[in-house]
Structures are given as C-alpha cells and as structure tokens.
Design a protein that fits this description.
The complex is a heterodimer of chains A (about 425) and B (about 450). Chain A is α/β, with parallel strands linked by helices and about 425 residues long. Chain A is about 45% helix and about 15% strand. Chain A is built from 16 helices and 15 strands. Chain A starts with a strand and ends with a helix. Chain B has a five-stranded parallel sheet with strand order 11-10-9-12-13, with helices on both faces. The longest helix of chain B is centred in the last third of the chain and has 29 residues. Classes of the chains: A alpha/beta (about 425), B alpha/beta (about 450). Strand 2 of chain A pairs antiparallel with strand 2 of chain B, so a sheet runs across the interface. Chain A: Keywords: Nitrogen fixation.
Chain lengths: ~425, ~450
C-alpha cells in the first residue's frame, strides 16, 4: 500500500470523474421493479441524469423531477412540488414505489422531506442526497439504506436458504447476475438489493412504460429480514448492511471489500463453503478458478511490464487494482472520485482523491489507464492504452454485459487489459519505426 | 458591469409570433410531468462551443459531472479544445454554508494560470444562485486582474427551460462580448451565424459554399466560434439565425442596438439549404451576389441529384413516421421529403407554436401532427403502412412489433445531416436501415413461443 492523498490540492475540479449522490440514488431506485425515481430539485438534475444513464445503458430510463423553480425554491418547503409531482406521476402510471431523493437545491433551502413524506399516502422511500456531499457511490448506498430502513419489515424468523446480496453501485447488471448465480450454486435463494441485473441488463422488452422494469419487487424488499445471510460487497454498503441487521439481529453478515480476482473470490467461496458445510463448490466454479489461474499466467508477462493508472469510484477502484496487482500489473496511480475507507487498502503506489487533470499531470507514471470514457481524450493525447470501465461509457455499447467479477469475470478482465497493453506497445513500436 | 438580464423580459419575447396568444411564461415546468433540460443546460449549449474559452461551472458536481463531453460540437481551433474539458468549482457543504466566492476566484486564477484561455465563462447554478454568491463582482475582479473577458452567465437551472437558458447565454455574450472589439477588416458581406453550434460539423457542410460566394462569417454564436470574433459581431451586416428560436431576443437586441437585420433559416435538406443560401444573399441586398448564389444553388442541386440517384429508386413509395421534438419535427421531415420519402406523421408534442405551423406546412393537410406520439404512432404505422420509424430509443419496441425499420434520431449523432452533403449521409443511413434485416429477425418468436 502506498501513499494516500485524501485532500484535493486545488480549488476546482478539472475533467472530473466524480458524479453526484442524487444520480447514485436514482440508479438504486432503478433496481426496484416498477419504481419511479423522483428527484427533488431543478428539472435539469433529472434531465442530465436521464440522458446520462440512457446513453450508458442504451435503455430507456425512468425518472421524474419535482421541477423546483426559482419561485418554488423560495416559497415552497417541498410540500407543493413533491405532492404535486406525485399526483402527476400517479395520474399517468401506477408505480409500486416512488423513490424520492434530493439534490443540492432543496437541501440548501432546507426542505423537510421526511415531514412531507409522512403526509403522502403512497408507497414512498425518501432519502437526502445533496450533490454537494459524497458522490455516486454514497448516493446509491444512502438510497439502499433508506429503502431498508423504510420498507423492510422487522422479523425474528430466519430462512437459512435465503440470502440478501447488497452490491455497490459500480457493479454492472451482468456482474450482479453472475454474483447471484454463483451464490445460488451453493443452494441459496439470492435476492439482490438493488437488482440492476433484471432491470438494466439490456433485455428487449415492452419498454414503452415510464416505470423501471425488472429489479427486485417491493414485496420482496419488505420481506428481506428473514434471510439467513447478508452479503455486502463494497465498503460503501456497510451502512446498508447494518441497517438490515437492525431489522433482525439474528441474520448473519459477511462483508467483502470487492469480489474481483482470485483471492477475493476465494474468500467468498470459503465463506459459502463454511456456511453450507459443502466440501466443494459446484463443478463450474472449480473449472472457472482453473481458467482464472491460467489467465493470470497467460497475462502476467504483459501485465508485469505495464504500469497502470486506475480512476474509479472507491469500491470499483479497490477491485480493479487488486485484480491487476495479483497478476503482476503495476498500479502506479489510483484516482478515487471521493474519499472512502477503501483507499488505504488499495494496492497502488499512489492513491489520491482527484480528477483526470491529476491523471494528466502524472501521465509519465503509467502506460495504460482504466477509467470511464472521459479518459479517452487523455489516452489519445498521450498515447496510453485504455480500458473503459465505470460510469459513464458513452463511446462503447454493451456496458451492461461487462463482467469483471469472480473467477470468470476476472479472467476476461485480465485478458482484456493484457491485450490492450500489447496493442498499445505494438502501436508505439510502429510509431517509432 | 452590465446588469443581470431580466428573466421576465426574456420570457415575454415580442419577436415570437405566438406571443399574442400566450400570456403565461413559456414552458413553466410541471412537477412530476416534466422532461427536458434546464436553463443551465441551455446556456451550456449556446456558449460551450467557444473552444478557446474556459467554461467554469460554479455549482455542485451534478451540473457539470453529468454533462461534460456530451455534445460533439466540432471546432477548428488549433489550441486545446476547452469545450471538451470540464471545469467546476464542485462546491461542498462548507461552501454552501460560508459562500463560494473565494473558491470561485481561486478557480478562475487556476484556470488562467494553467490554460491561458481567451475568456472565462462562469456559470451560475441553482445552489450558488440560492446562496447568493456574487458572480458579477467575482467576474469583474477577475477580469480586471487578468485582462481577459470573464463573463458571468446567469442561467441557474431553476429559472426555467433549456430554451430560456440559451437566451440567457446569448444575453451574456451580448452584454459582455459583442461590441468590445473592432474587426481588422470589414466586408459588405459579413454575417454572424447565430444558434449554429456545429454539432457533428453541421456548419462545415455549408460554410465553404458561403465562402465561395464571398460571404464572410464574421462571427458565430457559437459553432466553431472564437471569443475574439464574437467581440466584433456588432460590425456584421446580417444576423443569420440557424434553427434556433431561442436566440431571437439576442438578434432583436442587436438590431435595436447596432441596426443589424436578421433572418431565420435551416440548413437541413436540399430545399431548406437552397432557400437558406438564397435568403442570405437576398438579405445582403446585392444583385450580383444573388445571381451568383442562384448559379451555385443550381450547380449544387444538380450535383446532389446525381449522387442521390441510386437512392431514389429505393426510397420510392416509402413512408415514414417521425417522432422527435423542437425544430427537428419539421427540419428532418423536410429532409426526408427531399429524398422522396413521404412523411405521414410527425410528433409536435415537444414543439413550439411556430414549429407546429412549419410542420403543418411541410406535411400538408393529410399529414398527422401527433400530440401524443407514444400512443398514436403504432396506430398510424398500421393505418398508413409506414416503412420507417424515426424516433428516440424508447420507441424501438414499436418498430420491432410492427416489423419496420427504425432510426434513432435522438441519440447523439456522430454524422452530420446538414447542408447538401449531409443529406447524402442521411440517405445512406436510411438505406442501411431499410435494408437491415435485423428488425424482422429480432421480431421472430422464440422456439418456445411457437
């Protein structure tokens, strides 16, 4: 573990990778079936978020706004705009839930959304997610925590077969699905909260409706507290896990900082074996572990001579860096969007909370960058290899099917990184000829 | 320091033809039933294309974090393209409590030191407007200190729609840039292009033709624009508004202040491009120029027709349904008609009064103007036997279900459809869509559904 710099050294962000809390909360609500995320703020916040997510997932995105104006910002404490918004939403659609989340505007004027929510006779979860605090990851985590606190019914029962998975925001839909299937292979009934794997995985459906489609149902959420096991992935999810355990202290909880690479997946398998008393995991798991071992050896030569920069949300940063490092990749620079307890655990020479200008200033330190599509211009300018990961990726399609987790995804990821590194070296050589 | 623009005044634009009928402000948003961007986004759209200026967004991270590098506005600026960079003060709780002015000033200093821009545009956002940061004072101080224009843009999202924001962006340019510098030379055929943002290089489809005619683009707001040129915009002979009703206030004010007349036109499709070129020549009032323009139009149309010939056969008898918004409701319709495709319906739900009038004009009596396209388009496809649906991604399923070809017109395009040559790009895309078997293959039932 190297140097960790948590405090930005400049007054502004230049070429930011940071995204906002309300956007993370929106995404969390999109993992609930027939939900309408309702962003409390100016209309632009919701509009930007909608376009952002639509382009990333190539899917229609359900979201509405309370459309706070300069006048309502002064005169309204949220009562009018929120109540009116819900009236208008339910006029046209029948959501199972409204996910009310705030932005900086109503937080600055101090709207009491809890008070307003109490007066609303409609299934609703409210959460404070000002965009001048935290980031995408914490917004998602806060929303999940609020969903648990406000919807899950306390229980004293335990269903040993039932398992709740709490994934962090950067896990793409297919990754959530792979985690569910992997754990289900040990005999569990797995419920993910939120579950983007069935809502934003890019399946063709009749998506004319304005609500989210797929995802975990509100009924399933209400009944989560009898699960025998809770697995949280990503340090941002610890708060949500804690909230769930309060609904039923008898539930057992295991936490994983990430589930990328051989060692992290081994840790998960070890837990699952211990919990189930199985001697061995399913045959496909054993097979995939061998494939990952092979992939690590096949890629180590290339990765071992490549210096990496990784820019991402903290939980994803931890996973990507660990996965590269254990196959020999030299992670010189890890740039996090925001501060997190994860940062001290990241196997990189330098970890800093920053932006892509920082990555640019330190460009001598690395050959290949893993980051969102905004890193493309930088990679192009300085002839760096690029592996696009994280939100947003507007340049490539198929983001929802990019799988980096567990033995299987780990193998694919290492191959991709090594191939990009080789292509980059080949291009550099040709350039010099 | 110029006063802040008066928002009520901008909402009550006398140059809007529909204004007689409307007493209320344009586009007051309804909570829970609103789509579309905010004023900040509008200002961003109208000013960000100045690639030699830094665009500093004073607000929390949502405003810029979600929106930088979204629009493919191309530039020929040889320096670093600052349009495609993101600058934000990214204010935190501390700034909300204690004010963000110092941070803003420090941020401007940082930008000037590291990127040496020709100007800095500073955008207010909801939160910084609400906490009362004095943008004008900060910008004034910075301008004096660094000797470059530092332009406050008062278009926080909550004041209204994208359209209003574009007006506010125009106001900022007018108040702080236009008329602050004299051009090195003037010609009798100097024009400003207003509202042309050069998305996907649209502008470059027709500017070479203007150049050939001896018409000089003195400045633009703001496609492929330069700060130095917009400062000289007051010396133009004509303002040409390209597909942008939002900037009509700006051109009216420039007419009042500098006596520059304006015309409004579109460069989508053959007819509109030809009409546009002719309109510019006529407005410049030179008989020889008009004659040369007509000759050029004749030549270009003949050249285009030659290239379109292979497509004509394929498009013969084809019908299209168009579901989009704004000026695209008629400009794309016009381009489709130029290709010989019958436009049987166009959505006007998200269009202004004058866009609706234009759509009616282009589609004729029998064309359907859809007020509720979501539920209408499927029925119209059935009733007319349309072959093509041009719409946003949400409508894809309608096309699949009806087994007809689909083009996503709302997705950020990478290819220009503007001018004469852009029509060829559109023709090629339509051909590819019509010939693509995917819409029928995908619509096949699964083996277990038979």
């Amino acid at each position: 573990m190297g140097e960790v710099i948590r405090k930005p050294i400049k007054p502004l962000q230049v070429n930011p990778i940071k995204l906002s809390q309300p956007m993370g909360a929106t995404l969390a609500f999109l993992g609930i079936d027939k939900c309408m995320p309702l962003m409390h703020g100016g209309q632009g916040c919701a509009s930007f978020t909608k376009v952002f997510m639509t382009r990333h997932f190539s899917e229609p995105i359900a979201i509405q706004t309370t459309a706070v104006t300069d006048v309502t910002a002064i005169l309204d404490g949220g009562d009018y705009s929120i109540v009116e918004a819900i009236k208008n939403i339910t006029k046209k659609a029948s959501p199972s839930l409204i996910g009310l989340h705030t932005t900086g505007l109503p937080e600055t004027k101090g709207d009491d959304i809890r008070g307003v929510a109490a007066k609303i006779d409609f299934p609703l979860v409210h959460v404070n997610t000002p965009d001048y605090e935290g980031g995408l990851e914490s917004g998602w985590a806060l929303a999940v925590k609020a969903i648990i606190e406000q919807l899950v019914e306390a229980s004293e029962e335990l269903d040993g077969n039932k398992l709740v998975l709490l994934p962090h925001v950067s896990l793409q839909p297919i990754e959530v699905e792979k985690l569910k299937e992997f754990i289900a292979g040990f005999g569990f009934e797995v419920l993910a909260l939120p579950d983007l794997s069935t809502s934003l995985d890019g399946y063709l459906g009749e998506k004319q409706g304005s609500l989210s489609g797929g995802g975990i149902s509100v009924e399933q959420i209400r009944a989560l507290a009898d699960a025998g096991l809770v697995l949280s992935v990503g340090d941002s999810m610890l708060g949500a896990a804690k909230a769930l355990l309060e609904k039923n202290p008898a539930m057992r909880h295991h936490h994983f900082a990430h589930l990328s690479g051989l060692e992290a997946t081994d840790a998960l398998v070890e837990r699952l074996l211990a919990e189930t008393g199985f001697q061995k995991p399913p045959a496909s798991v054993i097979r995939w572990r061998k494939r990952l071992q092979d992939a690590m050896l096949d890629s180590h030569f290339s990765l071992g001579q490549t210096r990496f920069a990784v820019a991402a949300e903290p939980d994803q940063l931890a996973g990507v860096c660990a996965s590269l490092r254990e196959a020999g990749g030299r992670v010189r620079l890890a740039i996090a969007t925001v501060d997190s307890p994860q940062l001290v655990k990241i196997p990189a020479e330098k970890v800093l909370v920053g932006d892509l200008e920082d990555a640019e200033n330190l460009q001598d330190d690395y050959d290949l960058i893993v980051g969102n599509f905004h890193a493309e211009a930088l990679a192009h300018r300085f002839h760096k290899g690029l592996v696009v990961r994280g939100f947003p990726n507007w340049e490539q399609i198929g983001n929802q099917l990019k799988n980096d987790v567990l033995y299987e995804g780990g193998a694919y990821f290492l191959f991709e990184a090594a191939n990009v590194a080789e292509a980059m070296r080949a291009a550099t050589h040709h350039g010099r000829d | 320091m110029a006063p802040k623009p008066k928002i009520r005044e901008l909402l009550d634009e006398s140059a809007c033809t529909h204004n007689k009928t409307k007493k209320a402000a344009c586009n007051a948003p309804t909570p829970g039933a609103t789509t579309g961007g905010c004023a900040f986004e509008g200002a961003q759209i109208s000013l960000f294309p100045y690639a030699d200026a830094a665009h500093l967004v004073h607000g929390p991270i949502t405003c810029l974090g979600a929106s930088w590098e979204t629009r493919a506005t191309r530039t020929s600026y040889p320096g670093r393209d600052l349009t495609q960079m993101g600058f934000t003060t990214g204010i935190s709780t501390n700034d909300v409590v204690f004010g963000g002015e110092q941070k803003l000033l420090d941020s401007i200093a940082y930008i000037v030191e590291h990127y040496a821009p020709e100007a800095v545009f500073v955008y207010a956002t909801c939160v910084t407007a609400l906490i009362g940061d004095d943008l004008d004072a900060v910008c004034k101080a910075a301008k004096q200190k660094y000797g470059i224009p530092v332009v406050p843009v008062h278009a926080p999202g909550f004041v209204g729609s994208k359209n209003l924001g574009s007006r506010l962006g125009g106001e900022a340019a007018l108040a702080h840039l236009v008329g602050t510098k004299e051009p090195e030379v003037s010609t009798p055929f100097d024009i400003n292009l207003i509202g042309e943002y050069n998305v996907t290089g649209d502008m470059w489809q027709y500017t070479p033709l203007l150049e050939e005619l001896g018409i000089r683009v003195l400045s633009t707001l703001s496609g492929d624009g330069r700060v130095a040129s917009i400062r000289t915009a007051h010396r133009a002979r004509l303002n040409v508004i390209v597909c942008a009703k939002s900037l009509i206030s700006l051109t009216r004010k420039m007419e009042e202040k500098y006596g520059i007349p304006s015309i409004s036109l579109s460069f989508y499709g053959k007819r509109d491009t030809s009409n546009g070129l002719r309109a510019i020549a006529e407005a410049l009032g030179d008989a020889d120029l008009v004659a040369r323009t007509n000759a050029l139009i004749e030549r270009e149309e003949a050249r285009l027709e030659e290239k379109l010939r292979p497509y004509r056969e394929l498009f013969k008898g084809k019908k299209a349904v168009l579901n989009t918004g704004g000026n695209k409701t008629w400009s794309i319709a016009s381009a489709l008609q130029d290709l010989g495709i019958e436009v049987v319906a166009t959505a006007v739900k998200k269009a202004t009064e004058s866009d609706r009038e234009k759509a009616r004009e282009y589609l004729g009596e029998n064309g359907v103007l859809m007020m509720d396209p979501g539920s209408e388009q499927a029925k119209i496809i059935d009733a007319t036997g349309a072959h093509l649906l041009l719409a946003g991604g949400r409508s894809l399923y309608t096309a699949i279900k009806k087994r007809i070809s689909f083009i996503d017109v709302n997705q950020e395009k990478k290819k220009s459809y503007g001018g004469y040559d852009g029509l060829l790009n559109l023709a090629e895309d339509l051909k590819n869509a019509l010939e693509n078997p995917v819409f029928k293959t995908v619509a096949k039932r699964a083996p277990w559904e038979k």
